[in-house]
Amino acid sequence: MQLTDSWITAHYLDGMGAAEKTNGHILPKDMVNDRCVWVQLDMNEFAAQLWLREESRLPDVVVDALLADESRPRCMAVDDGVLLNLRGVNMNPGADPADMVSIQIWGERQLIVSTQRQRLRAVNDVEKHLHDGTGPKDVGELLADLSNSLSERMSHVVQNINDQVDQLEEDLVDESARENRNELKLLRREVIRLRRYIAPQREAMAALAGENISWVPPLEKQQIRSSADRLTLFVEEIDLVRERASIIQDELSSDQAARMNKNMYVLAIISGIFLPLTLITGLLGINVAGIPGADSPWAFGLVTFVLILCGVGELFLLRRLHWF
What angle do CA 130, 134, 136 make, to 5 degrees? Predict the structure, then answer.
């Protein structure tokens, strides 16, 4: 999915919470000015990759990281800049939120370069704030706003997972609604995928807040640290959801085993009742001479009556033995 109409977009921050947005080719000289600039690149386009390698004048290690297809969340300081690999929940139409979208960020005093292959609504939230004039005023605040927006979008997904587990636990009480195995399996898979990225992202945010970066003021560092704390809470909630899901799975398995044992027990009782009756009818049905009552017109009725008496007697005996 292409991010924008152009492979490159820039927001020139005015220092008051708003920004001037431009699409199109940006020369390196445009990245050095009195205003901070946020450059966004669509990595689906070869032109963006070419611009990074040949015109951006960024360090090779930074360029390689920004061009990486898949990356684990991390934070790495390079001189007075910082390289971030982060993930955000996938809120694109028809997508699974657990298929988290990667965003690579390079930040320095007056410049942020971010690369994506898919849309992130968390990024769109920051763009909207800039459009409304309530956005970040500098690069440090922009990093803090991005981290907060990513965490905020995650909170909705984590809360939705908690609601699903609550509903499964309520359904578990209802005997007629215990066939939720497929939904539970999908939920557990989603939780595993979320934790795979949220846990290292927490470490990346904490590392960013602890880095000695001159252009990130203490207030913005505190906001980033708050985002790391929220991610810690998300990890704890996800771990709790995993435990609750395991308990529900154990309860469903136990319930299924109990119902199967009950059905087998009923079949065993029925087999126990009919086994003697089958033996009698089998003996009377052999095709040899000497079968009692073979020539009597009332023999069939008598045998039937005896079989009924035997069946009733067996039921009475099993009942007295408390077998059912």
Answer: 65
Model pLDDT, residue 9: 87
Q: What is the pTM for the complete model shown?
A: 0.74
For residue 262, the Cα-to-chain-centroid distance in whole angstroms is 36
Q: Which helix (H) or strand (E) holds 310?
A: helix 299-320
Name, in order, each residue with C-beta under 8 angstroms of 79's C-beta and a sequence gap of 6 or more.
Answer: none
Distance separating alpha carbons of residues 76 and 231, to the nearest angstrom: 19
Could you identify the residue written with the tokens 């990225």?
197
Length of the chain: 324
Domain that includes residue 75, residue range: 8-254
What's the CA angle centered on 105, arms 189 and 138, to 5 degrees?
125
Residue 1 has a pLDDT of: 41
Last residue of a domain, one of 204, 238, 254: 254
Whether 3 is covered by a domain: the verdict is: no
Neighbours of 276 (CB within 10 A): 14
Backbone angles phi, psi at 304, to 5 degrees: -60, -45
Same-domain check for residues 78 and 224: yes
pLDDT tens for residues 69-105?
767 898 988 888 899 999 988 887 777 777 888 899 9
The residues, ordered by sequence, that sit 6+ positions from 190 with a Cβ below 8 Å of its Cβ are 96, 97, 98, 161
Taking the C-alpha atoms of 141, 147, 152 and 155 in order, what is their torsion angle to the nearest 10 degrees?
-160
Mean pLDDT of 215-237: 89
pLDDT digits (tens, 9 = 90+) for 177-208: 555 677 888 888 888 888 888 889 999 999 98
| Radius of gyration for the alpha carbons in the chain, expressed in angstroms and rounded | 35
Question: Could you tell me if 150 and 279 lie in one domain?
Answer: no
| Domain final position from 254, 273, 291 | 254
**Bridging pattern class, strands 74-78 and 37-42:** unpaired
* Per-residue pLDDT at 179: 58
